[in-house]
Design goal:
mainly beta; 28-stranded parallel barrel; 18-stranded mixed sheet; 2 helices; about 5% helix
Length: about 625
């Protein structure tokens, strides 16, 4: 008897099965134990399971006190610890309300350790899928920790499709690589989502998400209404998505509101929209969409902290909906590029509104010193209808609801914008006068800046600064080249907007005309490699702007140029400016050129006037 009891006890202990008091009493009376089918769901109890080989589970448990929500493994108020070689999860029930692979709820804890975790789940008749679901009220007590590499394939018809889901103060930690594929014909796909104070942490070296949608809405990473909550990728992320030709929804790679999202590894997001359906102003493509409102309890922050960030949006269909790389709308909303290199590519087939960066409603976009930001915007739209207008921007700021936008780039910035039809603008800082915060409206590029814009049929503008609170400053070396069909304006300041290119001893190269209307442009050019190739137009709505005061009120002060140490201005037509300072600078004036200067100062320089021999033997030159 003692030998039998000892062997039974050892066998039970080796299996690591939880004993209750009742089980122990039965064991002492009978000398043996009988077991029901092993449970993988800890409802107000503790379960410890250790298995070798493959473990195959299906959605056997009704959970969350709902008879139409199903899970394969997890906890609700209890604690589950599973350790095995390979865990395979599928669902035998495809209908109902929600289907979960791994789930946890209300002060439960789930710890799963396996070499491989495979989730293959499908749903029909509008049922929703959550591959990993965590809902609770305390981050320390409601926790899922999965250690191992996870592969997931999730398919729905019209129901919501999500790989990882956390809500209401829950905490989910994945210590392993992830590889998720989500497919839906007509349902919303929101691959990773958190809300109401929940945390999601991905600690694997590699994270891959592939999304295929027919007509349902697509959100790659959704950190929405999640105060004090964070989604964090501590390894690399590769997120791709494609849509069908009848797609008619918002198309968003990252959607954030009252939350913090950190991409700490290299990040590659590539979205392709094949839609032929247009709903301008209502639906569009925002690769990184950051939203908030004044008075929110929490800021909305998205940080790109990895060495390399690649953001690519491609629209290939007939849809004219907007195509935006990064939009920050609302204060306090922030996008931070903290890595070494950021590449933003917008390639649009027919969109009427394209932009690499877009800040409005008091939102802010920042880059750190040492970051290289490359923005490439291509509009392939070939024809524009009678009631259409097409604009493509590298950087755009706008007013919304009384707040202007803000951009501060402390690293190097390279902007290329090209259009077949429509207008191409490198930087457009547009502001409104009736605002709630007069400190908004700043676009500061503190590192070197290179801007190239071109349009085959429309205007090409390097920098436009419009409105009383529009403050646009470039402090590093500057190169601006524009080539438009209608206008080629390297600099265009209007209605009180300021453009200031006054870095100390910097090389400034401008290929294109310069124009101010009722406002100020300041440019310092230093060294033999600095030049302006183009005309300068200082205009006012009423009379030519001057540097004087009228009736005690300063008149908007036109264009002020400093040419220093061999810097050159090549004038080709009629030009006017407020002030010119010559410190060993050079002006080359064509025979057809006429230069009007309100104020001249400096130690002097060289003025070369092209001469033309007339038929009567006299010479003609341009006027200065």
């Amino acid at each position: 008897m003692n030998i039998t009891v000892e062997k039974s006890l050892k066998r039970c202990l080796k299996r690591k099965i939880t004993f209750t008091l009742g089980m122990m009493v039965a064991f002492l009376i009978t000398g043996s134990l009988g077991y029901a089918e092993e449970s993988y769901f800890a409802k107000d109890t503790d379960i410890v399971i250790e298995k070798e080989g493959d473990v195959n589970l299906t959605t056997d448990y009704t959970v969350e006190n709902k008879d139409n929500r199903y899970s394969a493994i997890g906890a609700d108020g209890g604690n589950l610890n599973f350790k095995g070689d390979k865990l395979n999860i599928s669902n035998k029930i495809t209908t109902g309300n929600m289907i979960f692979g791994v789930s946890n709820r209300e002060n439960g804890t789930v710890n799963i350790t396996a070499n491989e975790i495979n989730l293959n789940m499908s749903a029909t008749e509008g049922a929703q899928i959550r591959g990993i679901r965590n809902v609770g009220n305390n981050k320390e007590e409601t926790k899922i920790v999965i250690t191992g590499n996870i592969t997931g394939n999730f398919t729905t018809d019209t129901g919501l499709n999500r790989a990882v889901d956390a809500w209401t103060g829950a905490n989910t930690i994945i210590n392993g690589n992830t590889d998720f594929t989500l497919t839906s014909t007509n349902g919303t796909i929101s691959a990773v989502g958190a809300g109401e104070g929940a945390d999601l942490q991905f600690n694997g070296e590699s994270n891959k998400i592939v999304i295929n949608s027919g007509t349902g809405r697509v959100v790659g990473i959704e950190n929405w209404n999640n105060p004090h909550g964070t989604i964090e990728f501590n390894g690399d992320l590769d997120l791709t998505a494609t849509t069908g030709e009848n797609y008619n929804q918002w198309f968003q790679g990252v959607l954030a509101y009252q939350s913090t999202t950190n991409f700490n590894g290299n990040t590659n997001i590539v979205f392709e929209n094949k839609s032929n359906i247009s709903e301008p102003g209502n639906k569009g493509n925002n690769l990184i969409d950051i939203q908030c409102d004044p008075g929110n309890s929490d800021d909305t922050i998205v940080n790109f902290n990895g060495d390399t960030t690649n953001l690519t949006l491609v629209t290939t269909g007939e849809s004219t909906n907007q195509a935006i790389g990064v939009v920050v709308s609302g204060v306090p909303g922030v996008a931070n590029f903290n890595g070494k290199e950021t590449n933003i590519n917008i390639i649009s087939e027919n969109s009427n509104f394209n932009s690499g960066l877009w800040s409005k409603y008091g939102g802010t976009i920042n880059s750190v010193e040492g970051n290289i930001l490359n923005i490439n915007v291509v509009s392939n739209k070939e024809t524009i209808g009678d009631n259409e207008s097409t604009y493509s921007y590298g950087i755009l700021t706008q007013e919304y609801s009384g707040y202007n936008g803000n951009v501060t780039l402390n690293g190097k910035t390279n902007i290329t914008v090209s259009s077949i039809a429509g207008n191409s603008i490198g930087i457009a800082n547009t502001t409104a006068e009736n605002v709630k915060d007069t400190e908004d409206g700043k676009v500061y590029l503190n590192g070197d800046t290179n801007i190239i814009t071109a349009s085959q049929t429309g205007a090409a503008v390097g920098i436009a600064s419009v409105g009383k609170y529009s403050d646009t400053k470039l402090s590093g070396n500057v190169s601006i080249k524009v080539a438009g069909n209608e206008d080629s304006l390297a600099l265009d300041a209007q209605d009180g907007g300021l453009i200031d290119i006054t870095g100390e001893n910097k090389t400034v190269q401008i290929d294109g005309d310069i124009k101010s209307t009722d406002t100020t442009i300041n440019i310092n050019l230093t060294g033999e490699n600095s030049y302006i190739n183009g005309n300068i137009f200082q205009e006012s709505a009423s009379t030519v702007a001057t540097l004087d005061e009228t009736n005690g009120t300063p008149v908007p002060n036109g264009i002020n140029i400093i040419l220093k140490d061999g810097a050159t201005w090549n004038n080709k037509g009629n030009s006017s400016l407020g002030s010119l300072t010559m410190e060993n600078g050079i002006i080359n004036n064509t025979v057809d050129g006429s230069i009007s200067i309100d104020s001249f100062s400096g130690s002097g320089g060289t003025i070369n006037a092209e001469a033309k021999l007339n038929t009567d033997g006299t010479l003609s030159t341009g006027d200065i």
